[in-house]
Amino acid sequence: MNYETQLAGDVPAHVFGEEQPRPRRRGLMIGAAIAILLIAAAAWAILHGKGGEPAAAVEQAPVVTVIVPGQSMVEQTVSGTGSLAARVEMPVGVVGEGGEVRRVLVQPGDWVRAGQVLAVIERSVQSEQIRSLAAQVEVARADAKLAQAQLDRAKALVKRGFISQADIDQRTATRDAANARVNVAAAQLAEQRARTGRLDIRAPGAGLVLTRDVEPGQIVGSGSGVLFRMARDGAMEMLAQVSEGDLARLRPGNQATVTPVGSTERIAGRIWQVSPVVDPQTRQGIARIAIPYNRAIRPGGFASATIVSGAATAPMLPESAVQTDAKGHYVYIVDGRNQAVRRDVEIGQVSDKGVAITSGLTGTEHVVLSAGAFLAPGQKVRPEVRKAG
């Protein structure tokens, strides 16, 4: 036996690449299989969330803000449109004999008091007549004074027997006639002064001048028509046209808000009269709304009105929560599985407080606040609840 043969016989067989025993090799294979299963299980856990949902899907679900609206007290309102007018309009014309207009003292938009002169009429002839009548009064008074003096002298002489009682009676009658002529002359003078005073065009009451249809130099008389139009005390009104059904819900005293066309002014008023009749063609009636004076109110203009006809309870939502499409108004609510669900609703009063929901919600739902336009029915979401109000 040479040296190489002896060395090969002393070294173990596995050093030269010979196979290991079969039981040990099987154990290594089982361990590798278990490791692979553990890795697969870990990967599945990473890819799937709780309840069998993919974790990636949960992370990708959009976050939406929801509210529980509950029930709120909501005013029931009626809308109407119509024209503006003076509540009590006062036409002003010539009440005297008329003449040439010398001065016009007011303009539309001026406030005047009762009896204030609006226009002055030329009165030179009337002034001379007044002077003549005043002189006649003085003549009559002088005659009355003379008659009284003659009567006094006669009474002094009757005691001496120079004048009879018949003369006294005659002189007394003369004195009384003279006094009567004084009264007649004074009455004629007062009448002429009154006629002259009626030449001026005066305000029949306190209020606001609306129109002026007279100019200096114009000849006016009893047939000249209306020269000024006034609103008594400046009080205005709106003649709101409302439907037949809405008219039945209105009562005098109902509050209203009037907004003139072209203005942002919101003027508070109250209904003071509800029309007892309905137009058979338009099926509308008139609600007359009394409103105070405001620069934005121009009689003859157009306005819209919102009239409070009552109150009720209903869910109140922000306008951002209510969506609209061809089918009507709707909102999205989040159900117990965090899925978006479309809910058709009917809306009522829209105000600064929000939109009143008259049908479709009870107020206990979780309503999507503002992301409804980007959701689809059945879509998974992650809701965050915000307190209503």
UniProtKB/TrEMBL annotation:
Transmembrane segments: 28-47
Domain of life: Bacteria
Residues of the CusB-like beta-barrel domain: 240-308
A GO term for molecular function: efflux transmembrane transporter activity
Domain (YknX-like C-terminal permuted SH3-like) ranges: 317-382
Domain annotation CzcB-like barrel-sandwich hybrid: ranges: 98-224
Ranges in coiled-coil conformation: 130-157
Keywords: Coiled coil, Membrane, Transmembrane, Transmembrane helix
Gene3D superfamilies cross-referenced by the UniProt entry: 2.40.30.170, 2.40.420.20, 2.40.50.100, Helix hairpin bin (1.10.287.470)
A GO CC annotation given for this chain: efflux pump complex
Family indicated by similarity: Belongs to the membrane fusion protein (MFP) (TC 8.A.1) family.
NCBIfam families for this protein: RND_mfp
Protein name (Swiss-Prot/TrEMBL): Secretion protein HylD
